Structure of Threonine synthase:
Amino acid sequence: MAWQGLLKEYKEFLPVGENTPPLITLYEGNTPLYKLEKLSEKYEINAYAKFDGLNPTGSFKDRGMVMAMAKALEDGATAVICASTGNTSASAAAFAARAGLKCIVVIPNGKIAQGKLAQAVMYGAEIYAIDGNFDDALRYVRKTAETGKVALVNSVNPYRIEGQKTAAFEVVDELGQAPDYLFIPVGNAGNITAYWKGFKEYNEKKQTGLPKMMGFEASGAAAIVHNRVFENPETVGTAIRIGNPASWQGAVNARDESQGEIDEITDEQMIEAYQWIAQNEGVFAEPASCASVAGLLKKLEEGKIEKGSTVVTVLTGNGLKDPDTAIDYSEIKPTVLPNDEELIMNKILGSVKA
Ligand code: F0G
């Protein structure tokens, strides 16, 4: 049977009751788990990438948003609000359009990728671009939501975490059991919290095991790693440009309970992993997503991953969301040619090996 969307597929694990109609969906979830062939061979491990960039709005946020939006409808909300580094706002705007709710988004001005802004615009959100960062925006929307006039759909809304935990279910369903390690980018820390919850719930019900949770922050926004708020977070991975993660404690619990680690990677390491995985495995994920792959490469180089381990990296967003970073950092530039058949053919054929 065709995929029916997360609320129907994982109903027994989600807070979906008889009063949660309609079960809205954009057919989110059911994203591919790719074997990373070259990386696996090189390091003698079984490495995979869960590509959540293939969700309907191009990021993992759709998993949590479908749940949060269904609950907002159930509670009789007429409007939803979120702060965002871009993906949450794109997802909220899409599901609000689907659900017939008004969507208000607050974003850091000039600090979200173009594709994400285009999505919020296209799905018809009301957009406030503030002269502040994500942490400021989150503070304002939380206060606004306290009035009871709008429903908050950031991951501090527990329904977001409920929806997002389904990614862990899919990983386990595909592998037959939990991997040894789960590598994941950390921004506001909702997703690492959600994955850990998902792995634990599945293990309780099906004895599928638990991975070590390996979270990675950008070094310019590494609050959890350094155990202090970053007042002015900075990173090329704008999705995780967050200095005071709301689910800080959830991330620490996931790390400690799983005997995992939360570490940082530099922007250079992030960009290197971003280009490597596109050019060697054919997977184009957005820069912040690749904190997971960069983190895996870092731990492999430190010799911390045993040979034969099964490792899943989470690729949280689609590379097409951020064309500017792709082009700005690429060493590949189009060769501009005049409209001349002979010259064009000579140039092309000269570059092809005999
Ligand atoms: N990767 C991408 C592509 C993201 O958009 C985010 C968060 C993360 C990773 C980090 O996930 O916050 O659960 O630790 N983006 C949020 C947003 C903050 O507003 O779109 P997290």
